[in-house]
Amino acid sequence: MRNERRHAAPLLSALALFCVSLPAGAQEAQLTVLPPAEYQECLYGPAIGGSAGYGVYGYQLLSVAGARLGCLESTDARKWLWQWDANAVATGGTLANTRPYHHLIGASAAGDLSAGYRFSPSFRWSPYLEGSVAANLRAITEPGVGFGELRTINSLDNVGGLNADGALRVSAGYSLLDSPEIPARYSLKLTGFLQSWLRGPQVNTPARAFFEVGARGQYDLANSLALALEGLVGIAPRERNAAMGTTTSFTHWAFNADVRKRFGSHFWLSFAASFFDDSYTIVTAGSSQVAHPAEPVDVLFALNTGYAL
User: Fold this and answer.
1) What is the pLDDT at residue 279?
2) Residue pLDDT, tens place only, 98-127
3) CB 219: neighbour CB atoms within 10 A?
4) CB-CB contact of 115 with 80 (8 Å)
5) Angle, alpha carbons 258-264-266 (nearest 5°)
6) Cα angle value 225/230/235 (rounded, 5°)
């Protein structure tokens, strides 16, 4: 027994000396922990499509051709989620609100940027806070008709004219990212939001600022599928007309759905549907009379396809 101990002692001493003599880099390598895998889904390239809709303006049928750029990615060990999307397109089509029909031509551009913080980045589900900004610009008219003359073509609000709008949004909710041990395959965001929307002057409507509240759900499957659903209601400050003795209140609601499917590495196809109702109420001072002018809900369906570079 004593002989066994005598033979073991030199071996243990040699092993201890070997461990101590390991280079610092080798010891650190044994303790290195790989950072969580990030999520990334990007889309850049040309796009074409068309849309059909109905509203106070009548019926519209438009086609577009341009470019779309967008990306959703996580950074800093999945603490931050960044998303941006931009598109610029040439537009042409027909507006059927009189006979003969009116032909439209022009261009539009839109973009949005959001930054979100995940409070528990090491977990799949995390409380989530996001801030975003968005802007849209549109310049569409009938050939040979100046923007200032579009009021002679019934109502082109939400379809044509030279106008812009922008929004600031704060969202809170939950974010889900795929397992942190492997490259993240999917992302899910479920949020409620508060938004300030400034709508610039339309062809027949002055500029107004709306305060909005809503909810949004967004699911992204890397290089495959993207789905977003959003609903909101909004209200604008009342406008008083002292000469007429009236007070007008403005409200609206909207619902949007958007799905995009990617086929292989390059081709994609998307479908979007939107419903928007802009209404107002007129109250006359000293009278119980309340007017609710009826206007149709704006309905728009869009189908687009493109090539991801």
Assistant:
1) 87
2) 677 888 899 999 999 999 999 999 899 999
3) 16
4) yes
5) 75
6) 160
